[in-house]
Design goal:
The protein is 75% helix and 0% strand. The protein is mainly alpha-helical and 53 residues long.
């Protein structure tokens, strides 16, 4: 049986990896918020243009 284990990381690497993951998650979360806000703004603009016509 060939088992592929990851090597044991030093205790300094664990917090660094946590920081990287948190940053990635926050960037993703912020991108979702910005997308939803811009989508709402676009919908409002389209509705106002339709009402003017």
């Amino acid at each position: 049986m060939d088992k592929n284990y990851k090597p044991i990381t030093s205790m300094k690497e664990v917090p660094e990896q946590l920081r990287k993951l948190r940053r990635q998650y926050l960037r993703y979360q912020q991108a979702e918020i910005i997308y939803s806000i811009s989508h709402q703004v676009n919908e409002k603009q389209e509705n106002s243009v339709r009402l003017k016509e």
